[in-house]
Amino acid sequence: MTAVRDEKPFIIRYSFRFDDGARKVFEVRLDPKTLTAPAASGPLPDWVRLEHLRCEGCLLDPAAHQYCPVAANVAGIVSAFQDIISVTMAEVTVEMDERTISKRVVVQNGLSSLMGIYMVVSGCPTMEKLKPMVRVHLPFATSDETVYRVMTMYLGAQYFRMKKGLAPDWELRQLNELYERVKEVNLGFSARLQKAAKEDSLRNSICHLDVFATFLQMGALKKVDSLEYLFAPYLDCEKGAV
Predict the structure, then answer these.
(1) Does residue 180 fall inside a structural domain?
(2) Are 74 and 118 in contact (CB under 8 A)?
(3) Residue 189's pLDDT is what?
(4) Into how many domains does the chain fold?
(5) 220 pLDDT exceeds 80?
(6) Core-most of 13, 64, 99, 203, by most CB within 10 Å?
(7) Does residue 235 form part of some domain?
(8) Which residues contact 22 (CB under 8 A, 6 or more apart)?
(9) 171-202: per-residue pLDDT in tens?
(10) pTM, whole model, 2 decimals?
């Protein structure tokens, strides 16, 4: 009997609870197979139009896309946080089927994590290559944890490319190029938010994402190589093959 694939959406819920008792909740509902967020609907502000401060190197056709899909999907978040400064403290709780994680952080750190999801799942051709990391989303990850996830994501992609008869990049030569393109999107989107938000929490959330893109761009292979010590049991020739 053929197994029926679970059609339930993959949901990531972010809750921000502030010291004054106020609470803001955002639910990211994704298609379980494509990890794509539904397109935003309803009236949208002018700043989400694709041609408004369009990212350098944007791959979307303006004739087919009136709005930047990322901007359209985060318009509600921008509206909710436009008057909140980045260093405001909040208890941020992230809920998924697999786990619930809470941490008291400055707002920009929680927003960075939430905005990072929407940057990837909204239909931006540059960012969608990071979708595997959304499915194993790890809020508040350290730099080492994120480098590990990037490495395993990228090498996993090469394995599936090989199985499809496509040329794999086992030496991670194109990883740096990928994050150069990610950095372009981060910079472009930050400029867009500069015009949309009154306070700095949203702009700084993208800057926080861009710090990691720059971190990898400045030497992706060196960052990955720094994790070699974790794989020592696989590198001991005296212990033979795996």
Answers:
(1) yes
(2) yes
(3) 85
(4) 1
(5) no
(6) 203
(7) no
(8) none
(9) 998 988 898 888 888 888 888 887 776 656 66
(10) 0.85
